[in-house]
Design brief:
Chain lengths: ~140, ~425
């Protein structure tokens, strides 16, 4: 149920994001989704790729610090109110998100929301109890 | 005016004769009373009677900060501890700091040499001295304090900080002399401007600089901002504290109280003594000190000695302002810092690699230190707040070790250049030389 995301440490220095993405390009790794958290000092690049372990290896060969982190994907209607509906459920159930990002699924015209919370199992349970569709990892990797 | 004309204007011949007499006495005292010197001189087959001329001092080995550290805390004292009335401490190169001990006579001597210095700066018993040097467990504020008592001036021991109050006091108390580090002075000048106080509102007569390196441009700027001449004060805790050498109103080098300290300049690589007016490392010997006489102490400060008679009529030799260090010590906000202290702090934290680089800047008058630390997989977290906590934790550990706050920047692994032999640990962008 959990999707493997790669989190990469980026120093706040010109060209580092490019270097990370270039490493993946050379390795023929396609990126499914991407988000960046940045502060004035450093950034964290979060990506979903088809084969997280291979991508991790390629990046580490170039001295990047990479961690594989579990996140949860939720499918939602790509219409106004789709996202806020999911967030209302989490809010009503007192779940605090660490971060969130989303992308649209071209084939199905649906959007996929990627979520990170302190207790992922609780998050999954809550989403299920509220009849929200959890996206299986395979579906995301093979988009 | 000259505080002690007899001592400060002695002929070269008389100075040397006096120095030899004092040197013979102090070497004997160190040999008889300090186990460190006794052991070292015996090992080298040196006897106090071997000192027949001043030049014979070159037969004696150097004393280093590391030697003092090994005798931590009180091992270098030449008198029983009941005769010691005050101790100070300065940072060590690694591990333990260095302790300096003073008898009543030593404190009097300290007051005497600073009294000479303050008088050189044109200060007398009618002045009000605002002393912004720190009064903590390092000699910073105390030299000027004792000297001010000696000449009978009023001293305001305000110490560093409370910057707006500093300005208020300058104005309300009618401060005539400011003692500060150049960078703190620049900061105060700016603050005064913000408060709408100009140099006409205050009535400064002189400024005493100390504890950090500066350029002549910086001096001119400060003199202009405060409308008063600025004089350099040199000293180090191991030998005594601030006041070992002070600049007179000719502003052409710092007069060293040669009846208290015997100065030499050496080549820091070979240890050979260098002639007058040649740049090298300053080596000092305590000639008068009871509590902790140091013989041939390597200051690591780079300067030169000039023995010409000064325009002010003093015959005391002058050292040029310090233009560098022969080790990797840096002075930031007046505090001595060794890169090894930062390394020590990093080694105390789990998951932190001791790969680091120190970058010192002066972006806006005040010194800032940034320490680049390489992140590792163990340390890296996917969450920003965790990463910020780690950064804070490293900053706390470093502050605990060096006493001042630094900014830590986490960088990618292997991004700090590795070099063969000695790594470049410090990048000083302040342009102080």
């Amino acid at each position: 149920m959990k999707i493997k995301q790669l989190s990469i440490f980026l120093e706040n220095k010109k060209g580092r994001l490019w270097k990370a993405l270039d490493t993946l390009a050379i390795g023929n790794i396609n990126i499914r989704a991407l988000s960046i958290a940045d502060t004035s000092d450093f950034g964290i690049l979060r990506i979903i790729v088809q084969d997280p372990e291979i991508a991790k290896k390629l990046l580490e060969e170039k001295d990047f610090i990479v961690k594989v982190i579990d996140v949860v994907g939720v499918e939602l209607e790509d219409t106004p109110g789709g996202l806020s509906g999911v967030l209302k459920v989490l809010n009503d159930n007192n779940i605090n998100l660490e971060y969130i990002y989303a992308f649209t699924h071209e084939k199905t015209e649906k959007a996929i929301l990627l979520l990170q919370a302190e207790d992922l199992d609780l998050l999954i349970r809550t989403l299920k109890d509220n009849n929200l569709t959890i996206v299986p990892p395979k579906e995301v990797y093979n988009l | 005016m000259i505080w002690n004309k007899e001592a400060e204007c002695m002929s070269r011949e008389d100075i040397e004769e006096l120095q030899l007499k004092k040197l013979q006495k102090v070497v004997k005292r160190a040999y008889d009373n300090i186990p460190y010197y006794n052991k070292k001189y015996k090992e080298l087959g040196i006897h106090p009677e071997d000192i027949q001329t001043l030049k014979d001092i070159e037969k004696l080995p150097f004393t280093t900060k590391d030697d003092l550290r090994e005798s931590y805390p009180f091992g270098m004292f030449a008198v029983p501890s009941k005769e010691i009335i005050e101790v100070h401490s300065s940072s060590g190169t690694t591990g333990k700091p260095v302790v300096s001990g003073y008898t009543q006579k030593d404190i009097d001597s300290w007051g005497e040499i600073v009294a000479r210095g303050l008088t050189m700066m044109g200060i007398n018993d009618e002045d009000i001295i605002q002393n912004t040097h720190g009064y903590g467990l390092f000699t910073g504020g105390f030299g000027v304090h004792y000297g001010a008592h000696k000449i009978g001036a009023i001293v305001i021991p305000i110490s560093t900080g409370q910057s707006r109050r500093q300005i208020e006091i300058m104005k309300d108390f009618g401060t005539t002399v400011m003692i500060f580090t150049p960078s703190y002075g620049m900061y105060l000048a700016e603050l005064a401007k913000e408060e709408g106080i100009s140099k006409e509102d205050i009535n400064l007569k002189a400024i005493g600089f100390g504890a950090e390196m500066w350029t002549s441009e910086m001096r001119e700027k400060i003199e202009d901002k405060f409308g008063a001449p600025a004089y350099n004060i040199y000293g180090l805790t191991e030998l005594m504290g601030p006041g070992v050498a002070v600049e007179c109103n000719s502003q052409n080098g710092l007069h060293i109280s040669e009846d208290y300290f015997y100065p030499e300049i050496i080549d820091p690589k070979t240890g050979n003594t260098l002639p007058e007016n040649t740049k090298g490392e300053l080596v000092l010997t305590n000639l008068e000190r009871e509590g902790m006489p140091l013989i041939r102490f390597r200051t690591k400060d780079i300067t030169s000695i000039n023995k010409d008679i000064c325009k002010c009529n003093r015959t005391l030799a002058r050292i040029e302002r310090i233009t560098g260090r022969s080790d990797d010590m840096i002075k930031v906000k007046g505090v001595a810092i060794f890169p090894s202290q930062i390394e020590k702090a990093l080694l105390k934290i789990n998951d932190v690699e001791p790969h680091y680089q120190i970058i010192v800047t002066r972006p806006h008058l005040m010194d800032e230190i940034e320490v680049k630390v390489e992140a590792s997989e163990e340390l890296f977290s996917d969450e920003v707040k965790e990463m910020i906590n780690i950064k804070k934790k490293i900053e706390d550990y470093i502050e605990n070790e060096i006493g001042i706050r630094v900014k830590v920047a986490l960088v990618e692994p292997k991004s700090i250049p590795r070099s063969e032999g000695k790594a470049v640990r410090v990048i000083d962008k302040r342009n102080l030389h």
